[in-house]
Amino acid sequence: xxxxxxxxxxxxxxxxxxxxxxxxxxxxxxxxxxxxxxxxxxxxxxxxxxxxxxxxxxxxxxxxxxxxxxxxxxxxxxxxxxxxxxxxxxxxxxxxxxxxxxxxxxxxxxxxxxxxxxxxxxxxxxxxxxxxxxxxxxxxxxxxxxxxxxxxxxxxxx
Length: 158
Hints:
This protein has one domain (3-9, 18-154): TerB-like (Orthogonal Bundle). The protein is built from 8 helices and no strands. It has helices at 3-10, 18-44, 51-65, 69-85, 90-99, 102-116, 124-136, 141-154. The model is unreliable at 4-14 (pLDDT under 50).
């Protein structure tokens, strides 16, 4: 999902200043927390955050950001604190909008749908939050539905 961003952030040339490298690492951490927070918000949308959903988020963060288990758990803790302190999802989607390409945002939506269907059903609150997230990420409704149907098909939930 963030491979282009990760390449940009970690393939600095020799002339990159320390402050630029530090800024890139700060941006990377900020995006990791924002993405993780969206997953947590969605996982909690139906009123419960199951172990299966928690494991999905941790494993997805490990895969997406190429991080180890310990760092993924720390990221989850930090993101959970940000979710508690946040006023709305706009805090997270705003950060993502600033740095993600349209393709990366669409991939994020696809992975959020995978989280929704970890329990093989969709709660009305999850559906509502997905519409809200996609709207704030400037994803067309048609693309949101396309990604939903793709994931359902992929998981054999037709």
